[in-house]
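USER: My hope is that you can spare some time for a protein that puzzles me. I am handing you a single protein, as its sequence and its fold in token form. Walk me, if you will, through where the backbone shape changes along the chain. The protein I mean follows directly.
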Amino acid sequence: MRLSDRIKASYRGLRTNMSRTMLTILGIVIGITAIIIVVSIGQGAQDLILSQIQGLGSRTIIIEPGREPHGPADFSEMYTDSLKQRELDALMNSANVQGLEYVAPMVIQVVPVNYENEISRTNILGSSVEIANVLDIYADDGDLLREDDIRNHTSVAVLGSEVKIKLFGESDAVGERIKMNGRSYMVIGTIHPKGQVGFLDVDHMVLIPYTTAQQYITGTSHFGALFARAIDEDSVPRVVRDIELTLRELHGIDDPDKDDFHATTQADAMETVGVITGALTALLSSVAAISLVVGGIGIMNIMLVSVAERTREIGLRKALGATNTDILAHFLLESVILTVFGGIIGILMGSLLSFLASLVLTKVLGRAWSFTFPISAALLGLGVSASVGLIFGIYPAKKASRKSPIEALRYE
């Protein structure tokens, strides 16, 4: 019998009981759909995070206190006070770090911001004048921070666009006074809408001098991070090396494994994000793939029932000259067609639901969540579904092929 004839015969056999056929492949459909959704959303999340990281520029180096975490045990050593004013001054000295364009300290705290009867709980970012270059921002109205504000611990604030609208609406904010932690701050400017830069939402933050933030907001003398920028991309490795050597000398550290700080380039951050999201996607996909095994067991059970119901048909076909191989191939082909058909439906459903999920996430998060059709996952899904049909269809097909034609024709 030709392959085309076998496919037609298998299709006719499956079509005779379409409702049972659809219920049989439900596990395969659910499994492939879940895998497509997980991989697509995982890729969208990775693209979103990477785009935010890239927003800081390839020349940016982030210096954070504490040892770089490589496992759960390291997280307890991340939050230290190892970065203070002396570290900032040492890094800004060109004799210590060559090829460094500037360094911007960062102090971040979430506090309520009050203006008359309006309250906005938002991020307070304490930094220096260089933060404008780091975040690539400029004033929509008024001015940004000035060197005098940093030196004199001045109580001034620059509002992100969304904070300004929340507190002042369409009214002018420059020259008005807001309150944070019971202290009054004069608004000297508003920031032009920028959105997300790295992990900072510029539109929903209030910018103040870092000296003021340390004295009146956090009450500490250390920084949450230092943002440095090299003069060009080629200088980044050298700048990172000089930063590490300078801080180790300042802290009396001889063994790099005992560093109480870590410097991360944008390339490092992107690689880390790729590894983490890839591992999570693989984990979730493997969990979703369990339903494929469940679906395969269901297919095997249904095929066994089908073999029992069609015993007389098997006997008749053997009496007419069909060989054991013909019977084996027929039932095995039915099983594979079932799973491949389920895989195709799962790919279509998974793609549709992933597209709808990307639209919903874009609206809910206010970020451009890209839809990605995972071609590799789709091909893998088809391959896995066909393999499931082949593996779980072998036993029923063998059982059908070994039936005696005489006993099969006598079967009631």
